[in-house]
Amino acid sequence: MQSFWTAFFERCILILVSCSLLLPAGCHVQPSGPLAFVSNERDGTITVIDTKTDRVVSTIQVGGRLRGIRLGSDKKTIWVAISYPTNQSQGEDKIAKINSDGTVLAKYEAGTDPENFVLDKNDARLYIANEDAGTASVTDVSSNRLIRVMPVGLEPEGASISPDGRWVYITSESSSSVSVIDTQTDQVVKTFLVGARPREAVFSSDGSRAYVTAENGNTVAVVDTSRHEVIKTIELPRGDGPTQLKPKGSLFLQMANVFMWPRVAATALQLLMVKPNNS
After folding, report:
1. Which of 57, 146, 200, 217 lies at 20 to 30 Å from 168 by C-alpha?
2. What does the pLDDT look like over 61-107, one tens digit per residue?
């Protein structure tokens, strides 16, 4: 069985390609390290950061309330969840496909208030967590049509897919639950409880285990994916000191919706994990 940290590092580094393959147009400074793409919920932009220098190298203007963000299987396109800006009546609920210069190539149906999502291996289907609606939606990309909407827990925010593409885990923060979707039937086949306010699930590379972070519970649940059952709970440090951990997604950072590439040394990531908790 793989260790939690091995699976953790494999999952949070999503793309293993040179940053030059997806360098945003208009960027006049050649990045010296891996790039991080950060979706900004309040101003509708994606910030591109050179992780070696911690400097912003580009800002992509999209619009709307941006949250979940993924890289396409082609390693050249970015997919991002767009929903209505907070307390505004005008906007759209979509998943946008964007190329590296910020051009929106397509927008896909996403159900109500898409928070996060995953793509299958061929970018053929989207599995979407719809926060306000308490549902998960499935979109067929080729026809741009919602083909399934199913109830899950309260305020679903996380979406993860197993390495073989068989299972999607939807984490719901207010009900402290994980809903398991079988992608062969696009149905919820099981729901199980984890720690308070789960934010993200991480699968091991062989798919035998999943790890679910609970922000308020300060725990990580270890899940046997053959049974979709919690077999162990890892307690994380508590307290008000500068080394307090807040498991708020797959990077344990006080920053959401980040992905980076190429692969970064695990030792460097471990330094990022301990961060002052000022919230």
Report:
1. 217
2. 998 999 999 988 888 889 999 998 765 666 789 999 998 778 899 99
The single-letter DSSP state of residue 127 is: E
**SS3 of 78-118:** EEEEEECCCCCCCCCCEEEEECCCCCEEEEEECCCCEEEEE
Q: How far is CA 76 from CA 31, 48, 106, 211, in A?
A: 17, 14, 14, 28
Fold classified for 4-257: Methylamine Dehydrogenase; Chain H (2.130.10)
DSSP 22: G
The total of other beta-carbon atoms located within 10 Å of residue 99's CB is: 17
Q: What is the pLDDT of residue 159?
A: 95
CA 214 to CA 217: how far, in whole Å?
5
Chain-centre distance for alpha carbon 131: 14
* 123: alpha, beta or left? (left if phi > 0; alpha if psi -120 to 50): left
- DSSP code of residue 21: G
Contact predicate 212/169, CB 8 Å = yes
> Angle 207-165-80 (CA atoms, 0-180°, nearest 5)?
110
Q: What is the DSSP annotation of 182-205?
A: ETTTTEEEEEEE-SSSEEEEEE-T
Using 50, 70 and 90 to split pLDDT, how confident is the model at 5? very low
